[in-house]
Input
Amino acid sequence: MSGPTPVSSSTEAVAAAAPAAVRRASQSPAARAWRRFRRNRLGFVSLVVFCALVAISLFAELISNDKPLLVRYQGEFYVPMLHDYSEKTFGGDFESPADYLDPYVRERITTGGNWAIYTLNTYGSRTIAYESKLPFPSPPSSDNWLGTDERGRDMLAQLIYGFRLSVLFGLALMAVGVVIGVITGAIQGYFGGRTDLAFQRVIEIWSSMPELYLLIIFSAIFAPSVALLLLLLSLFGWMGLSDYVRAEFLRNRQMDYVKAARALGVDNGRIMWRHILPNSLTPVVTFLPFRMSAAILALTSLDFLGLGVPPGTPSIGELLSQGKENLDAWWISIETFAALVITLLLLTFMGDALRDALDPRKADT
Output
C-alpha cells in the first residue's frame, strides 16, 4: 500500500505565501504605506526619537523649572507651578514672589519637617543662575549641566524651551502653508486655462518680492513677536507646495472617475475636495517634513540676525548668535549647533522614509 504523495518544498512555500499576499492586497493604501515606512529602520527610529523629543519639550515646565512641583510647609501643601506665593508665605520678609532657588527660601521649605519636590533641572527659561560661583558664561558644572549663556541662563533649559519654540513654530508655519498651497494649487490645476495663467503670473510677481527686506522693514515698524513672524513667513511659504498640488490636479482631472463624476452632475467643489484631492495628497504628505525643516531654519536664521522672536525668548538662533560673540565659550556653539543638526537630520530621515513609503513604484514584499 503506497503512502501519500510528498508535496514539493516550492509548492509549500507558495501555499504559505498566498495568505500573506492576500492580506497585503486587502490592506488599505495607508496601511501598506505605514508598513513600508516601518521597514525603513532609519526613518522609523528618527520618527520615534523626534516624537520623544517633542513630548519632552511640551512638558518642559515639569522637567526644567525654577519652581518646585510640590511644597509641604508647616503641614500645608503648595503648588508653586500653578500659583504664585509670596516670600512671606514661607517665613520671608517681603510680599514679592518667592525665589525658590534663594538659599534662605530653599532652607525654609526643605528643613524642619518641610519638604519640596523640584524638577530634574532647577532652572526655567528665564532663570538667571545668581548663585553660580563662576562668571557668565560659565562652562558645564554640577549645577548647570550644560553651562550657562552670557546672560547667566542655564543652557539645558534654553535648549529645551528653544527646541519647543522651533517645533511649534515649524508646525504652525507648515499648517498655514499647506492650507494656502493646497487651495491655490487645486484651483489652478482643476480649472486651468485663464485661471491657471492668472494665478501663475501673480505667483511669479509675488515670489520676486524681497522677503528679507520686507522682514527688516516690518521688524523696524512693529514690535517683534512670534505672531508677526509667522504671518510674514506664511505669505511666502506656500508657493512651493502650490506647484506640486497644481501638477497633481492637472493630471488627475483627466482621469475617468472625474469625467464620470462630471457626467453625473457632481459640482466642481465636491469633485475637487472629495475625489481629486485624496488622490493628490502624496506630494503634500511627502513635502511636510522638509517644509518643517525649512521653517525651523528660517526661524533660526532670523533669530541669529536679530529679526526673530522678542529679546529674552529662548531661541536656537539667539544662542548661535551668542556663540559667535563668545568664541571662548565653546559649549554655547557646540551644544546649540548639535541640537539644530540633530533636529534637521531627524526630519530629513523621516522625509526620505515617507517619500519611499508613498512611492507607488515601491513593490510590497
